[in-house]
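dumping this here so i dont lose it
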């Protein structure tokens, strides 16, 4: 238990620092950074809630529990907004986007209102039940539905990024898009790990469940380092290409690039490939 608390505190610290950095660094033109920051902030709040359960804070103060349950309905929309800000910048709020937030608002208001209307004794009972690591099948199904909600949004976001990559291949290298896709793949891995820990707990293996939680927390910390390095290395992130642009290179670089192109076509018979695009050629020359 002590190892989990230490790892959780470390992950919360990393999440908060990076979330603050990304949200502060984002601009109206490159808002994808801010949505990654918001997602990391939501993860930090989830870890804080779990830590308060682990160290018994809610057992002594049950009136402060029950505030984070509905936040799971924000994970999916946040990933979707990230993909939307990448593929259709700049990101602007509209009625169609606000609709994605409505389920969270409804569920959060309903849950918090219902919980706070209970007596202190009933709140204590619910907290003890949640801390006992023996969830009912009803709770398990609700958690499963919440994970399904998140997975659905994540798959839609991945599809949007794949289409965006194909569009960018006609103009630029797709390294930045690959980074964005890797981020979404991590989220799918997060879904899988969360589902596995839920199944282990439902099977009545609390010790193995704690091991799964520890793995989940540590992997999140490693992911935070990955995001930080990539964000520092590629500040613009996934900025969409302009419709028209002019580029100029020094004559020496132009000749060197022209030579590489000629060599590629001579060695690989590139002129015989009718499906060769500028993006494909750029990827080959970058190898």
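and the seq i came up w/
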């Amino acid at each position: 238990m002590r190892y989990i608390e230490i790892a959780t505190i470390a992950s919360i610290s990393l999440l908060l620092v990076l979330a603050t950095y990304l949200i502060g660094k984002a601009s109206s033109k490159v808002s994808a950074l801010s949505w990654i920051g918001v997602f990391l902030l939501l993860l930090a709040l989830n870890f804080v809630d779990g830590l308060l359960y682990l160290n018994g804070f809610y057992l002594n103060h049950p009136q402060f529990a029950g505030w984070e349950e509905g936040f799971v309905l924000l994970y999916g929309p946040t990933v979707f907004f990230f993909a939307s800000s990448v593929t259709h910048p700049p990101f602007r709020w509209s009625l169609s986007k606000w609709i994605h937030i409505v389920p969270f608002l409804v569920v959060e208001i309903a849950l918090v209102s219902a919980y706070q209307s209970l007596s202190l004794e009933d709140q204590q009972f619910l907290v003890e039940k949640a801390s006992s690591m023996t969830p009912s099948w009803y709770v398990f199904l609700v958690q499963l539905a919440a994970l399904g909600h998140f997975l659905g949004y994540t798959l839609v976001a991945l599809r949007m990024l794949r289409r965006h990559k194909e569009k960018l291949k006609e103009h630029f290298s797709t390294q930045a898009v690959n980074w964005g896709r890797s981020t979404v793949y991590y989220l799918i891995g997060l879904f899988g790990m969360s589902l596995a820990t839920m199944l282990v707990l439902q099977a009545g293996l609390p010790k193995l469940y704690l091991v799964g939680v520890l793995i989940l927390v540590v992997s999140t910390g490693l992911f935070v380092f990955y995001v930080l390095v990539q964000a520092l290395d590629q500040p613009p992130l996934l900025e969409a290409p302009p419709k028209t642009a002019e580029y100029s290179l020094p004559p020496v670089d132009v000749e060197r690039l022209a030579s590489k192109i000629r060599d590629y076509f001579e060695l690989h018979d590139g002129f015989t490939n009718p499906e060769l695009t500028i993006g494909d050629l750029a990827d080959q020359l970058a190898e």
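The longest helix spans residues 137-168.
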